[in-house]
Amino acid sequence: MKLDSKIPEGHISKKWTDYKDHLKLVAPNNRPKIDIIVVGTGLAGASAAASLGEMGYNVKAFCYQDSPRRAHSIAAQGGINAAKNYQNDGDSIFRLFYDTIKGGDYRAREANVHRLAEVSGNIIDQCVAQGVPFAREYGGLLDNRSFGGTQVQRTFYAAGQTGQQLLLGAYSALSRQIGLGRVKQFNRHEMLDLVKVDGKARGIIARNLVTGELERHSAHAVVIATGGYGNVYFLSTNAMGSNVTAGWKIHKKGAAFANPCFVQIHPTCIPVHGVNQSKLTLMSESLRNSGRIWVPKKKEDAEAIREGKLKPTQLAEEDRDYFLERRYPAFGNLVPRDVASRAAKERCDAGHGIEANDTNEGVYLDFSTEIQSKGRQAAYAKGNHNPSAEEVTKLGKQWLEEKYGNLFTMYQKITDENPYETPMKIYPAVHYTMGGVWVDYNLQSTIPGCFVAGEANFSDHGANRLGASALMQGLADGYFVLPYTVSNYLADEIRTGKISTESQEFIDAENNVKNSIESLLKNKGSKSVDHFHKRLGLIMWNKVGMARNEAGLKQAIEEIAALKEEFYNDVYVPGTADELNPELEKALRVADFIDLGQLMAMDALQRNESCGGHFREEYQDAEGETLRDDENFSFVSAWEYMGYDISKEILNKEELKYEFIKIAARNYK
């Protein structure tokens, strides 16, 4: 496999502009002759489908949910980054570019990241025009807050529901195109295979999840925008339906899968509470603007808290270890997610965890300092320069409620604890995946005509994504990149004509899907799909999770290979193929997760360094920080599918070259 990133020549600040100026175009009168399939209707997919429909192409959009509004993008809470420097605190396009490269531990492609920073401001303008209700300051200007890994305020937000509001904006644009007939929406449909004709992506096989019918859909280009693969761990902050199937199917058809071991562990999740839990709930990183993270300094205090003999509010200030502020004074509680997560794990492993579960995993996120600070400010603004303690607390809580009210309500409903009165309990959990399908500068995979956008590709975040950058990438890809690069590809397709779904390639692809479904349904096993998914998740979390080592990774590879054989021999899938069958849906997805899990362990094993979310215990300094090996591992690992046996996959490397940023050890101290 040859990897050609197609990075343009020229200065980093001019690459994208000069490149756009020389891309091929499709004239407006020719666009209605061309069909495009978009799989996934989250921020990347909905914005791409809406934009391509607005341009005049015939678009088919697919989602497995009952509405595009239910895409997992809706769960993003904290905000979206953009380099507008509204706060006049030193931000710029270059600063956002630099922070993103540094936050990703120098494992992202330089040109793609700078393009992301360039178009970030346009995203905010677009969304404001759509009516997205961003928070505003007292004067009416858009407000900003900070997120991890930065020292400026560049995150635009809509209370604690930014993803929902952005998705509604994209959905409104998509709905307009549906109403005009330019986009045909297929809800409750799941892509189960990609169809290639003469080496090019020419369509998909989709299953109608209500009737079970397999459908053939043809197009001149296919866009995959189906999110990440965090659910390979079973327990994650992802929606339970989130999966890797679309990305894995195109991988099996020839698309390289890049950096699969780069997984983000988010530090601000409600801790696991039991073995029967099916998913985890995230508390927005935006809370780290106002909350301070701590554990008891003394192990005996931590033990007393776990046993219910001591309340956190009873612990004196001098007995609290604000460990992020202690270890990283320059950034404090706003260090990047991977740094904060490892620091929390280290404290809990050392016996200072405060949650009373089998593993004693949990730290506090405490808002008492902010309540007092903002309460005094609010009182002063009202002309009360000598407020009582009760007034200060009351006003401080009101300020918090205005800023984060829906997040606090959600936490209280889940835990039955009032975060205004007692600190939140949090612990790291699987959240986002930086790895994904390999794409070039055009967001095209190694399959011509197959483009990949948003979290489904690997291109922008390196080994660790900065908070509030997922929404930025999804909308950047859909609104401001794909309309140019897909059109450049389609300029050579205007004479192709309608693509028939009666060709042998479509027949073969449909038969392959049908055979896969039938083999699962005919299998007279004894164990449920969830049984295998949970076992896979335990292997992944324990051996390919927050900390990895050579022995554990080798064991994981063997255990997952054995689990795969057991799955195909002993899984039981009830029901039939020609009906609504959620267990069949899960079985098909878990089969892909098992293959991916093995590849993730293989990728982590070959990367003999620590970088970002990939932490190898053998490669850390005396203070427990990551030790990169830039001489030997400054590359994107792009894996090539070679058949049923995942251990036979071939590693291809795209060397990473930094021309405009000086590589250095990450330092947040």
Automatic annotation (TrEMBL):
It is found in: Cell membrane. It catalyses: a quinone + succinate = fumarate + a quinol. GO terms for biological process: anaerobic respiration. InterPro entries: FAD-dep_OxRdtase_2_FAD-bd, FAD/NAD-bd_sf, Fum_R/Succ_DH_flav-like_C_sf, Fum_Rdtase/Succ_DH_flav-like_C, SdhA/FrdA/AprA, Succ_DH/Fum_Rdt_flav_su, Succ_DH/fumarate_Rdtase_cat_sf. GO terms for molecular function: electron transfer activity; flavin adenine dinucleotide binding; succinate dehydrogenase (quinone) activity. Its EC number is 1.3.5.1. One of its GO terms (cellular component) is plasma membrane. The keyword Acyltransferase does not apply. Belongs to the FAD-dependent oxidoreductase 2 family. FRD/SDH subfamily. This is succinate dehydrogenase. The lineage of its organism: Bacteria, Pseudomonadati, Bacteroidota, Flavobacteriia, Flavobacteriales.
